[in-house]
Amino acid sequence: MSNIDYIAIYLESQGEVEGATGWTLVKDFMPGSPATMVGLYENSGLPPEVGFPLRYPDFQVKVRAKASAAGASAAKAKLESIYGVLHDNGSGGVVNATLATSHFYCYVKAASDMITLGRDEQNRMQYVQNYNTAINE
């Protein structure tokens, strides 16, 4: 499994996506529907350590919702909520935690603030936030 697979499992276990949340989770590609969606994308990250099982893969969280002011607000709120469960802000986040029973995450931290991507082809606002990780395998 990849880094975003573990992050996906974690976000679902935290009640951020899937189930009764109304937020569909996808990886590496956002299809045209449904409107309310969270996407996870792998980014490059730093090179792994030499002589230690430590990797630094990065990823991006992308959100969108219905083409309305309420949809844009909902997408921003969802990205903020995901930030709250991923980034170590002193009161939560992923720090020294095993995700999906097998990968030890030293940390997950935001590498950017929320970035507005503008509207997609169906006039839905899109927002992203980038994250860094350190994984001890």
Describe this entry's structure for a reader.
β6 (115-119) and β7 form a beta hairpin. This protein has helices at residues 3-13, 69-86; strands at residues 24-27, 37-46, 54-64, 95-99, 103-110, 115-119, 125-136. It has 137 residues and is of the alpha+beta class. It has one domain (3-136): STM4215-like. 21% of the residues lie in helices and 40% in strands. The chain contains two helices and seven strands; from the N terminus they run αβββαββββ. The two termini are 12 Å apart. The relative contact order is 0.21. The mean pLDDT is 93. Strands 1, 2, 3, 4, 5, 6 and 7 form a seven-stranded mixed beta sheet that branches.
Please, how many helices? 2
Poorly predicted runs of 5 or more residues: none
The value of Rg in angstroms is 15 Å
Q: Hey, roughly how much beta strand do the residues contain?
A: 35-45%
Q: Could you give the distance between the termini?
A: 12 Å
Largest sheet properties: 7 strands, mixed
Produce the secondary structure layout.
Elements: H1 3-13, E1 24-27, E2 37-46, E3 54-64, H2 69-86, E4 95-99, E5 103-110, E6 115-119, E7 125-136
Parallel strand pairs: 1-2
Antiparallel strand pairs: 2-3, 3-7, 4-5, 5-7, 6-7
Compose a concise summary of this entry.
This protein is an alpha+beta fold. The protein has helices spanning 3-13, 69-86; strands at residues 24-27, 37-46, 54-64, 95-99, 103-110, 115-119, 125-136.
Features:
137 residues; alpha+beta; STM4215-like; 7-stranded mixed beta sheet; 2 helices; 7 strands
